[in-house]
Amino acid sequence: MRREEIMDGLKDGLIVSCQAVPGEPHYMDGMTAKMAECAEWAGAVGIRANSPDDIKRIKETVDLPIIGLWKIDRNIKDVYLTPHLNAAREIWNAGAEIIAIQATKHKRDDGKYSYETIKEIKKEIPEALIFADISTPEDAMIASEYGADFVAPTLQGYTKAGFFDQVSIKDAPDFILLRDVVEAVKGTETKVIMEGKVSTPEIAVQCLYMGAYAVVVGNAITRPHITAKRFARMLKRYHD
Predict the structure, then answer these.
(1) Is the pTM higher than 0.70?
(2) 128-149: b or e for each residue (b if 16 or more CB lie within 10 Å)?
(3) Per residue in 100-120, pLDDT tens?
(4) Domain range summary for the chain, segments of one domain joined by +
(5) Cα separations (Å) of 82 from 14, 108, 175, 231?
(6) CATH 3.20.20.70 fits 3-239, yes or no
């Protein structure tokens, strides 16, 4: 599938994040591939997946473009989301058409800012589409200038090594941030994908109205224990 076909196919669509990590109640062999199969059945236009192993399994299961990433040393290092070119190569070789990387004002192990991974991928794997996970409008602008095809405020509130500020505990998306990110890349070829706290179909549609090219939904679809926790937390607030 050509780059243009992939991009056109994502427009105004649902991308489902299919991830599970050790310690979660739904973590088991083959779970993410089954999530992807359900997403495809439901009409999703793309999948977001973590690690070369999961990407390979999902690629064997569904016929949808995959936004691949690799979380390495999360909660340990400032740059952990596809933190270097070698990780990007592994994701590409596993079958992902789109490589997701961290693009924030944090430095990699080699002392370079994480944005540099965009340029390295464009030189090494020019046919790959690049999805920049950003935290601020400034991140989005830099990522766009470096050549990212997509930007998403996935790392909203990100401070360091896996810790987030208080905004991250809210149940609703940061629509002001979405507005500012859309404005930051206005007039460029970079598309804005909304990711983060998109918990209902109505919110997803609102994000499109605000200028998002597509939306990524994870917790509300593929992590039922997190959705249940939102309900339990809200009911506890009512009781309190």
Answers:
(1) yes
(2) bbbbbbbbbbebbbbbbebbbb
(3) 999 999 999 999 999 999 999
(4) 3-239
(5) 23, 10, 26, 32
(6) yes
